[in-house]
Specification:
Blueprint: E1 4-7, E2 10-13, E3 18-24, E4 33-39, E5 46-51, E6 58-60, E7 68-73, E8 78-83, E9 92-99, E10 114-115, E11 119-124
Parallel strand pairs: 2-11
Antiparallel strand pairs: 1-3, 3-8, 4-5, 4-9, 5-6, 7-8, 9-10, 9-11
């Protein structure tokens, strides 16, 4: 069982930066792949980035590639999403999720077993 808590959301100006954190409970967290997803009002949940348990494999959505970076510190049971060059289109609730498997399907929300409650990110122009 894994429990996830996101933090670090808030408001930013376009071009600014925020860093989201996903803190996890559980001694085996380092064996879980973790993904970040986002959902804007009236839109479907969208994949943002994912990282494997060891932290050496990552995937980023094309829409955030070069601007967002996912990383993890297993000693702190925490996964991060560094968001730079923010755009108004990045406005959404951001969720982290955990899954025991690392596979090409980590970009699919249905793949994940555990989810956090979400944190709001608002980017103004």
């Amino acid at each position: 069982q894994v429990q996830l808590v996101e933090s670090g959301g808030g408001s930013a100006q376009a071009g600014g930066s925020l860093r989201l954190s996903c803190a996890a409970s559980g001694r085996t967290f380092s064996t879980y792949a973790v993904g970040w997803f986002r959902q804007a009002p009236g839109k479907e949940r969208e994949f943002v980035a994912a990282i494997n348990g060891g932290g050496y494999n990552t995937i980023h959505a094309d829409s955030v590639k070069g601007r967002f970076t996912i990383s993890r510190d297993n000693a702190k049971n925490t996964v991060y999403l560094q968001m730079n060059s923010l755009k108004p289109g990045d406005t959404a609730v951001y969720y982290c999720a955990a899954d025991v498997n690392w596979s090409p399907s980590v970009t699919w929300a249905d793949e994940y077993d555990y989810w956090g409650q979400g944190t709001q990110v608002t980017v103004s122009s």
